[in-house]
Amino acid sequence: TNEHEFSLGFWFYFFAAYSQEAADTLACRQNRGSCSFVSCSGPLVDIGTCRGGKLKCCKW
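^ GLL9 protein, sequence as received from the core. Prediction below:
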């Protein structure tokens, strides 16, 4: 049915987007950084992004 195809398409899109976002978030964590909604400031240095570029990756 159409609903079934839409549901499968939605889940495929969701997991594809999630795995893409997880790559930069994982890289941030591996570099001992943390994800932030705001720009890195003070002793924190911007070393990349998280969540597919939506968040900043900051490190002490």
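The radius of gyration is 16 Å.
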